[in-house]
Amino acid sequence: MQRRLNGRDILYFGGLAVVLITIILAMYMVDRQWQKMAQMEQLMREQAADIRNIGMQLRTLGRRVESGVNLSSQPETDEGSVPAAFERAHQASQKEDYAEGDWLVRAFGVNLKSLTPFISEDVYASTVQGYILESLLVRNADSLEWEGLLAREWEVSEDGLTFVFKLRDGLRFSDGKPLTAEDVAFTFSFIMNPAIQAPRERAYYAKIETVEALDRLTVRFQFAEPYFNALALAGGISVMPKHFYEPYLQEPNSYNQSKGLLLGSGPYRLEDPRNWSPDKGIIELQRNPRYWGPVQPAYNRLLWRIIENDSARLTTFRNGEIDTYVSRPREYKQLVEDTDLTKKAEHWEYMSPIAGYSYIGWNQQRSDEPTRFADTKVRQAMTYLIDRERINEEIYLGYADVAMSPFTATSKQHNPDLLPRAYDQHRAMALLNEAGYADRDGDGILEDESGAPFEFDLVYFQGNEDTSRMVLFLKDLMARVGILLQPKPTEWSVMIDLMKKRDFDAITLGWTSGLETDLYQMFHSSQIADAGNNFIGYRNEKLDQLIDEARATVDEETRMPLWQAAERELYNDQPYTFLKRSKSLVFIDRRIGNIVQTKLGLNLNSLPVETYVPADQHRYNQ
User: Fold this and answer.
1) I want to staple 297 with a disulfide (CB 3.0 to 4.6 A). Which of 18, 20, 146, 609 is the partner?
2) Which residue from 129, 139, 118, 109 is spatially nearest to 465, judged by alpha carbons?
3) Over the stretch 508-563, which tens digit does the pLDDT of each residue have?
4) Is residue 381 within 8 Å of residue 555, measured between CB atoms?
5) How many CB atoms neighbour CB 16 within 10 A?
6) Which residue numbers delimit the Solute-binding protein family domain (predicted)?
């Protein structure tokens, strides 16, 4: 039986229609407001760019009437032109599809313990800091020559001991305070203050005698002795704001125990530069609205999500929640053939000329007592027992090269007469027997002369599946000769603490590399004390002398034989078992524009920022 509408029904449906219309109108108005805000934001960015251009022109005019000698060791740019350090970023900004806005979202496989300069000791924190702290010079990714960033001119004395930098005018930190030569001088004095927990940096900067601000824009570095990498050392110092960090000299413990004290002059900044915390599971940087650079970075925000599991990172990348994914070799070929993935992402496969290396470090001193690995024969035997070729073929599927030292095979530092030690179980057993190890009770386990079994823990990062597989493979190799390897999967923050305390038997990690690698930090005996990075307690007087001499030799032809002799000492001593150098197997979402490969690798991490997202590919509005 049908029922006719009465007056009450008509009122009900009429009211409902009014509510729906009101909601639709409200949504329309909100959308209009968002569009208006976006237009205002774009207008403000354009006005800011106009102001920056005016500022550049004024500074150029100002330079024409400055008195004094021209300090430049590189040609001055033409008036009104973009500084050389920003040229690649400027060219990117001129592309037809270039747009500002959106976010670049990546992932870290470890949870960072700290972002505070010097307190943080890993490459992940350094990556974040690079967007916030700036240096005087940067290296051109194509020519590999140095170019001025904070510095616009510099000169070097004939004896190579004095470096004078002229800063650009108009430099500012992200809080609006000016950056001057005083900040550069302060940064050096802060690093060298023994109350600040910066042993690694003090070791490097110890060759500098003084850093002095000659005037507001001129700073002089005076070296105590020649150093082959002096320009990189002085020009690469990350300038810290004196007004922000100086108060911590009165309370150094609060600085040394801090998690996130990070303020600089770079293109990005932390929302709260004093109170970043590692327990948020994400690192977020905002674009610096006061950035002094003539070319602004495209992205409104940079984000790193903390995703420790390899498979979880891949899933997150497939879902479009992160923009990059570094593939494991075992899955790479499959992913390249995955049509759904290749539609949304480009892939890159290359061996970087500055590729770092992985290793096993054998701790030679623990609790002030020598360990079994203090014996050179034992360390040599351990390298002979590790089948690195098989590891690379079966675990890394050929996407890695066996490493022999901190120097790449193509480096001038490498001694071409040296070849990697091949897997040789018989040679290893002979060395172990010479060192006093044998199966004394017939149980299949090697014992030392006191009857103690040859047993050790191997610390490794628990979140890396390939490393876990390698450690299990090593456990089997060691068991074949009667050595008990106990795998010790460990959180990243705990690994750092174990290294500082020297509280481990053996540890597998990796070091980043450079165009020319300085061995001082890792292998010089002076870097054992004061929580230095020689955390395995390795001492070799001859190596110390070679490192000291090489570092003090400016002439390259004379220096390279010294590095090659130092490499031979490492080859003979095996303080590390050098494992591999891996190819980069990288997937990048196709929405990221202007990705190119340079002599330093992909430009995704280049500074100044060169990449962007075209407007029609934007995912994030803020």
Assistant:
1) 609
2) 109
3) 999 988 889 999 999 999 999 888 899 999 999 999 999 999 999 999 999 999 99
4) no
5) 10
6) 147-519
Cβ-contact 490, 460 below 8 angstroms: yes
State which H helix or E strand residue 421 sits in: none
- Tokens encoding 307: 């995703």
152/171 Cα distance (integer angstroms): 11
Rounded Cα distance, 383 and 390, in Å = 13
Query: What are the strands, taking DSSP E only, across 120-217?
Result: 137-139, 146-148, 151-156, 162-167, 208-215
**Residue 71 corresponds to which tokens in the numbers above?**
């300090």
User: At the topology level of CATH, where does 357-582 sit?
Assistant: Dipeptide-binding Protein; domain 3 (3.10.105)
| Whole-number Å distance between alpha carbons of 401 and 408 | 10
Collect all residues with Cβ–Cβ distance below 8 Å to 23 and sequence separation of at least 6: none
Are the beta carbons of 246 and 186 closer than 8 angstroms?
yes
Q: Left, alpha or beta for 594 (phi > 0: left; psi -120 to 50: alpha)?
A: left
Residue type present at position 96: E
498 conformational bin, left if phi > 0, alpha if psi -120 to 50, beta if neither: alpha
Burial of 237 (0-12, 13-18, 19+ CB in 10 A): buried
Please check whether residue 363 is in contact with residue 430, taking contact to mean a CB–CB distance below 8 angstroms: no
Domain spanning 98-307+589-617: which CATH class is it, in words?
alpha beta
**Residues 301 and 284 sit within 8 Å (Cβ to Cβ):** yes
Looking only at the bridges linking them, the beta strands covering 208-215 and 218-223 are antiparallel
Which residues face 584 on adjacent strands?
350
Q: Could you tell me whether strands 506-511 and 455-461 are parallel, antiparallel, or unpaired per DSSP bridges?
A: parallel
CB 296 within 8 A of CB 267: yes
Token pair, residue 351, equals: 């061996």
Q: Count CB neighbours of 94 within 10 A.
A: 7
Sign of CA dihedral 148, 153, 157, 161: negative
For residue 220, the one-letter residue type is: R
Say if CB 475 and CB 387 are below 8 A apart: no
Distance CA(104)–CA(93), nearest Å, equals 16
In 3-state terms the chain splits into helix, strand, coil percentages (rounded to 5) of: 40, 20, 40
pLDDT digits (tens, 9 = 90+) for 435-480: 999 999 999 999 999 999 999 999 999 988 999 999 999 999 999 9
Q: What is the pLDDT of residue 73?
A: 45
